Amino acid sequence: MSKSVGMLSALPLTPLHYPFAKVLSKLDKRLILPGLVVGSVIPDIEVPFMWVFFSEYQDHFILHSLIGALTLGLLAAVLVTRFLYPPIISFVFGVDKDRLNEACRLKPILVLSCAIGVLSHLVLDVPMHPYNPILWPWVPSSNIVGILVLFFAQGNGIAVGFVRANALMSVVMLFFCVSILVRYRKKKLWEHVWLGDDVGESQRVD
Predict the structure, then answer these.
(1) What is the DSSP string of 179-190?
(2) Residue 115: left if φ>0, alpha if ψ -120 to 50, beta else—which one?
(3) Which residue segment(s) compose the domain that 176 sits in?
(4) pLDDT digits (tens, 9 = 90+) for 51-72
(5) Which of 113, 154, 178, 185 could pair with 32 in a Cys bridge, judged by C-beta atoms 3.0 to 4.6 Å apart?
(6) What is the value of pTM for the model shown?
(7) Which of these, 8, 23, 7, 6, lies nearest to 123 by C-alpha position?
(8) Number of domains into which the chain is organized
């Protein structure tokens, strides 16, 4: 598969990991949505880094492995959630900064939320990529080909399978993103999107 195809397909999908984080916050209201959201996108911070400094290697590497996601990825997610999420979301979307700071207090449930968010990214990525370093360093990434890629690659090649799998997942996640925006459009939209539906309840459970 060409490097250009991978570059064009990797980052546009990153924000579309959000719906999975939102669903997880609805399934367990103890989880902190900001931690889930940041965790769900943090593995892709390595992609542009790999493009610039290690272009001879695959752009999904350590942070897309279980061991990397739950160490470096988790640390990055916690730091970003605690220190960057409140000021950025407050400035860009006008969400109350005090509520954001309270939701992003450093506590065990926040760390757990970040960890689950990071793992959710890996779960969504595995089916649609032609290589997956999820079991690095024990299993070569080339040995784990996404099931959607294999399905769409039949008679067309892995590169075509990847593009089609990526497009399908993008459409599905975009649909859920739009559905969330439509659902909360008259109900303090950005508070629901960036803080969650039950912020007060989640904050009382440490």
Answers:
(1) HHHHHTTTS-HH
(2) alpha
(3) 3-192
(4) 888 887 888 899 999 999 999 9
(5) 113
(6) 0.89
(7) 23
(8) 1
